[in-house]
Structures are given as structure tokens and as C-alpha cells.
Write a structure and sequence with these properties.
Low-confidence stretches: none
Oligomer: single chain
Number of domains: 1
Number of strands: 5
Strand content: 25-35%
Shape: globular
Strand order of the largest sheet: 1-5-4-3-2
Number of helices: 3
Distance between the termini: 17 Å
Helix content: 25-40%
Largest sheet: 5 strands, mixed
Order of helices and strands: EHHEEEEH
Length: 108
């Protein structure tokens, strides 16, 4: 899982409950980072700490949108999911269009 140098995940009751309320299991969320993933910066919510966005299909076909931050735990850098949900149809269409454009431009 070479996402921004992270070596694992940081889960606790708070972020686990928030992510699962949208119908996603831990395996679904973690699998997003193990496949072909699009990464971006969540500028809107990065006031107190840097937040990022990951979009990928994970274990299924329907893309998953994950907002996360990075946490240092000792010597380990971990992905801490803040929230995750399945993407809506219009978001999927926009993501697929942007991904195709990135691929054509050699940005992916």
C-alpha cells in the first residue's frame, strides 16, 4: 500500500463507525488503496490537518470515495479514513471522464 508512503491503516471506534454508516466494510475501504486509485487534496476540509481524497473501485464495481488523513504512529505512517461512501451516478460519470482525460494526457 504505497499511498503517500503509508504502511497501514489507523482505525478506532470514531472513524470506523462514521465510515460504516454508509454501508462500507473495512475491507471495502482498505481495498480502494490497494488497487488503481485516484488521489487528490481535500482543500475544503484541510484547515486543521491535511486531508486527501481517494477514489477507486475497491472490491466491487461501484467506485468508492474516501476522505482520509495521514497519521504518524511511532515510526509508521498510517492512512486514517475520515469518511467513506459509494459514489453517486453523476460523480462516477465525472470521475470516469476526468480519469480518461488524465490517461490521455499521461497523468495517470
Amino acid at each position: 500500500m504505497p499511498v503517500l508512503g503509508a504502511v497501514g491503516f489507523d482505525w478506532d471506534h470514531g472513524n470506523l463507525a462514521k465510515c460504516q454508516k454508509h454501508g462500507l466494510a473495512v475491507d471495502d475501504i482498505e481495498s480502494v488503496f490497494k488497487g488503481d486509485v485516484w488521489l487528490g487534496v481535500d482543500r475544503k476540509h484541510s484547515m486543521a490537518e491535511a486531508r486527501f481524497v481517494a477514489v477507486g473501485s475497491g472490491l466491487g464495481i461501484r467506485p468508492i470515495y474516501v476522505v482520509f488523513t495521514l497519521r504518524q504512529r511511532g515510526t509508521r505512517l498510517l492512512v486514517r479514513p475520515v469518511t467513506a461512501r459509494y459514489m453517486h451516478r453523476k460523480e462516477i460519470e465525472r470521475y470516469e471522464k476526468e480519469a480518461a482525460e488524465d490517461s490521455e494526457n499521461g497523468n495517470r
